[in-house]
Amino acid sequence: MLFLVDSAIFDRFPDTRIGVIAASRLDNRGESPDILNELRQAQIELRRSLQSTPVVEHPRISIWREAYRKFGAKPKKHPSSIENLVRRVLKGEDIRPINKLVDIYNTVSLRHLLPVGGEDLVQIAGDIRLTIAGDAEAPITLLGETDPRAPNLGEVIYKDDLGAICRRWNWKEADRTKINETTTRAVFVIESLPPVRRLELESAMSDLANRLVRFCSAELESAVLSESRTEMELY
């Protein structure tokens, strides 16, 4: 199984970097007070640091609004995962605990203001590809929805052999590959666009990796994918 980024992504979004962490032997069962405390602390710190900054003007959010517009999505209607998370926190909403792995990557996303997501590798069919949607993509059911819909032509998506697993780059993932308490193998992605530097991305990856090992007994492999390295083998 490979994780690949198509050249079309770099043609349209130069200097994109995708931090990929493949995790095995995960223990995602039960709850962890420490994880929940750190998720709550990340929200407190975010409110303190961004209380006077308009969300749409923050550079780590505005870059995703611009990217969404480039592939025809309306960021006001379909906000990036990081914008959605930040808006909820700044409105005073506490991020609802889901399971250890999801709570961990939401914490890292808030701490570093980068989109972070994950998929259950057992549910993946074939390779994972970050690509541009064609005109014959299979309809998929997204988290929280009941009716399947196909991605739009030209939309940035993650997909496997069965169809899209995340639409509008990082907007919303498919129900089929979601992480749950039975997940033992998963892949996590942290996405960056300029002006985020590689060292900043690697810092977020290290933060995520340390938490996966500490709280979920993970065994990890990782890589930064870019124009100079476009694929990673997932074990």
Assign the structural class, choosing from mainly alpha, mainly beta, alpha/beta, alpha+beta, or little secondary structure.
alpha+beta
SSE topology string: EHEHHHHEEEEEEHEE
Low-confidence stretches: none
How many extended strands? 10
**Helix segment tally:** 6
Strand content: 15-25%
Mind describing the biggest β-sheet?
6 strands, mixed
- Considering DSSP H and I runs of 4 or more, what fraction of the residues is helical? 25-40%
Shape: globular
- How would you write the strand order of the largest sheet? 7-6-5-4-1-10
Distance between the termini: 7 Å
Mean pLDDT: 97
Radius of gyration: 17 Å
What does this molecule look like?
- With 235 residues, the protein is of the alpha+beta class.
- It is built from six helices and ten strands; from the N terminus they run E-H-E-H-H-H-H-E-E-E-E-E-E-H-E-E.
- It has helices spanning 7-12, 33-50, 59-70, 81-90, 100-112, 198-216, and strands at residues 2-5, 17-24, 116-120, 128-132, 156-160, 163-167, 172-173, 186-192, 219-225, 231-233.
- The strands form two sheets. It has a six-stranded mixed β-sheet with strand order 7-6-5-4-1-10. A four-stranded antiparallel β-sheet has the order 3-8-2-9, with helices on one face.
- Helix 2 packs parallel to helix 5 and helix 5 runs antiparallel to helix 6.
